[in-house]
Write a structure and sequence with these properties.
237 residues; Polyketide_Oxido-like; NADH-flavin reductase; NAD(P)-bd_dom_sf; two-stranded parallel sheet
C-alpha cells in the first residue's frame, strides 16, 4: 500500500514509518528537514513539505499515484502560550488535497484530553484538577486547535479516523499490551510504538471508520511527572 505520513520526523511518525516499511508498504515520509531523517529504504520516499503549505501537500499526495492509498497524520507541536493553528490549518489543507486526488482513508492523531466525555471511574483529583489544568491553562491553545482539527476532519466526506492517545512516552517497540476503544476508558499513558502500530493497522486494514478511538498502554509506563514534562514542553507527537 502507498502511505503518506505527515509528521514523519516526529517521535511517533518515525515509529509509523519504520513499522510500515517492515510490513512491506511504500512510504512517503513528509518532513521539512529530509537531511536529518534517520531512516532509509528502497521503499521510502522523502518529501519536503509543510502541512500548512497547500502546494506542498498537493504535490505529496499527487506523488502517491493510484491504487490503494492512505494518509497518516502525526504532526504536532509542544504547549505554547501563543495561539496554535497548525493542527486546524494542516487538517483543512490535507483533507482538501485528499478529496482532490481521490484518496479516502485518513488516520490522524489528537489527544484524549480533547474528549468531552468523562472517563468512568476517574478520580476526583484527575477530573477536577489535572484535566482542567491541562485543558484550560497549560495546553489551552494546543487543545483548542486540536478540537478545531477534529471538527474539520469529521465534517469531511473522507473515510476518516481520529486516534486519541493519552500522555505519550517513548519505548523501543510495541508493548502488545494496549487497549483500543471507541469508548472512554481508564488509562493515562500511551507508548509511541503502540500508537504507531494502531495508526498503521487502521490505515492499511481499517477496523474503525468515521469515529474517534482511544489507545491506552497497559504496560508499566515511566514516571508520570518526568514523562509529562518532557512531552508537554519539549516533545512532538
Amino acid at each position: 500500500m502507498n502511505l503518506a505520513v505527515f509528521g514523519a520526523n516526529g517521535p511517533t511518525g518515525r515509529h509509523v514509518v519504520e513499522q510500515a516499511l517492515a510490513a512491506g508498504h511504500r512510504v512517503t515520509a513528509v518532513t521539512r528537514r529530509p537531511d536529518q531523517y534517520p531512516l532509509s529504504s528502497p521503499h521510502l520516499t522523502l518529501a519536503v513539505a509543510d502541512v500548512t503549505d497547500p502546494a506542498g501537500v498537493d504535490r505529496v499526495l499527487h506523488g502517491l499515484g493510484t491504487g490503494p492509498r492512505a494518509v497518516i497524520s502525526t504532526y504536532g507541536v509542544p504547549y505554547s502560550r501563543h495561539p496554535i493553528t497548525v493542527y486546524s490549518e494542516g487538517a483543512a489543507i490535507i483533507t482538501r488535497a485528499m478529496a482532490s486526488h481521490g484518496i479516502q482513508r485518513l488516520v490522524c492523531v489528537t489527544s484524549t484530553t480533547v474528549a468531552a466525555e468523562q472517563v468512568p471511574g476517574e478520580t476526583l483529583m484527575w477530573r477536577k484538577v489535572v484535566i482542567p489544568l491541562l485543558r484550560r491553562v497549560l495546553g489551552r491553545t494546543l487543545y483548542d486547535d486540536m478540537a478545531r482539527m477534529e471538527d474539520i476532519v469529521t465534517s469531511s466526506d473522507l473515510d476518516w479516523l481520529i486516534v486519541r492517545p493519552a500522555g505519550l512516552f517513548d519505548a523501543d517497540s510495541p508493548s502488545n499490551d494496549y487497549q483500543v476503544s471507541a469508548q472512554r476508558s481508564p488509562g493515562r499513558r500511551t507508548s509511541r510504538p503502540d500508537l504507531a502500530q494502531v495508526l498503521l493497522n487502521e490505515a492499511t486494514q481499517p477496523q474503525h471508520s468515521r469515529c474517534a478511538i482511544e489507545v491506552l498502554t497497559r504496560a508499566i509506563p515511566p514516571r508520570q511527572a518526568a514523562a509529562f514534562l518532557k512531552e508537554a514542553f519539549g516533545g512532538r507527537r
